[in-house]
Amino acid sequence: MAGAASTYAMTSSQVPSNNSLPAGLNKKTGAILSYALGWLTGIIFLFAAKNDPDVKFHAAQSIIFFAAVSVLNVVLSIVGSLLGALGIIFSLAGLVLGVFALVVCIMAMVGANNSGGVRTELPLVGKFVAPFADQLADSVK
C-alpha cells in the first residue's frame, strides 16, 4: 500500500520541507530571505531556487513590490525637487512610503515563516502584486 501513496501528484504547497535550495537552505528560509534586502535578494532567490516554485513566487513578489516602491520613491524625489518649498510634501510622502514598505516586508517575512515557505500573497498589496509575481516566477526556468 505504500506504493499507492506515491502515485498521487504533489502540489507546490505539498513539497517536502527538506527540499533544499542550492545553498543548503530549506524552503521556509529561502522564502523568508527573499524579502530580506528587497528586490536584491528577490533576484538572487529567483534564480537560486529555480526548482522550487514557492520560493520563486516569494522572490518574484519581492522583486515586483520593492521595484515599484523604488520607482515611486524616485518619482517622488524628482517631483519634490522640482517644486522647491512644496517639495517637503513629497519628501514626507517618500518617508511614509518607506515605512509602508518596511511594514509590508516584515509582514511578508512573518507570513512566509508561518506558512512554512509555501505561496502566500503579500499582505495589503498581494492581490495587485501576485498576478505579476506568478508571471515572473513562471518565466524563470
TrEMBL record:
Keywords, in A-Z order: Membrane, Transmembrane, Transmembrane helix
Membrane topology: Multi-pass membrane protein
Location(s) in or outside the cell: Membrane
Any Gene Ontology CC annotation: membrane
Cross-referenced Pfam families: MamF_MmsF
InterPro entries named in the record: MamF_MmsF
TM spans (from-to): 32-50, 62-82, 88-110
Membrane listed as a keyword: yes
Name of the protein in its database record: Putative membrane protein
